[in-house]
Amino acid sequence: MGPEEKLFRTYYRGLCHFAWKIVRESTTAEDLVQEAFVTFFKDQQRIEQSEAFVRNYLYTAVRFSCLKHLRHEKVKEKYWARVEFNEEDGHSVERSIIHTEVINEIYRIIAQMPFSCQQIFKMGYLDGLSNLEITEKLQISVNTVKTQKQRGMKILMDKLHPEFLPFIIFLLK
């Protein structure tokens, strides 16, 4: 048995009990004690090797790790108290995935449109600007805006997968 193993066997159980008295969770206590040993073994060359010093070092390291753990748990509790936990069910995750796919497909098709058509289509349907607002921003006629929007919609309808058409109906509202 090497000196590290002897040290581990000597103090592990006592340190686990000490940590458990602070955190009240046996697995967490064991994890914190193991982390203290790992840190000790990494810094072993820099640490004085007297038995009393090693013992104090390990107990102090475990104590601070436990306190740090408890502080972190309190922060997590505060966070969950502030943020409403909203676990998504399977349907809402599926809807989110479909929505993302539709949006990606629409942006892919828009990127293929001629520049002026693309610009007017985005302003009209994605940014929600009225025809009048678009004419004022681009200094073009209302008829040009209407024509480009119709042209863009035709391109979109021709290239969009039929499964995504209900989303387009929603977009037009």
Account of the protein in words:
By secondary structure, this protein is mainly alpha-helical. Helix content is 80%, strand content 0%. The N and C termini lie far apart (76 Å). It comes from Sphingobacterium zeae. Keywords: Sigma factor, Transcription, Transcription regulation. This is RNA polymerase sigma-70 factor (Family 1). InterPro entries: RNA_pol_sigma-70-like, RNA_pol_sigma-70_dom, RNA_pol_sigma70_bacteroid, RNA_pol_sigma70_r2, RNA_pol_sigma70_r4_t2, RNA_pol_sigma_r2, RNA_pol_sigma_r3/r4-like, WH-like_DNA-bd_sf.
Summary, kept brief:
The protein has helices at about 5-25, 25-40, 50-80, 90-110, 115-125, 130-140, 140-160, 165-170. It is mainly alpha-helical and about 170 residues long.
Shape: rod-shaped
Unreliable residue stretches: none
Helix content range of the residues, please? over 70%
For the largest beta-sheet, the strand count, sense and barrel status come to:
none
Quaternary state, please?
Answer: single chain
Gyration radius over CA: 32 Å
Q: What is the average of the pLDDT values? A: 86
Task: Report strand %.
Answer: under 5%
Number of helix segments? 8
Family: Belongs to the sigma-70 factor family. ECF subfamily.
Organism: Sphingobacterium zeae
Pfam families: Sigma70_r2, Sigma70_r4_2
Protein name: RNA polymerase sigma-70 factor (Family 1)
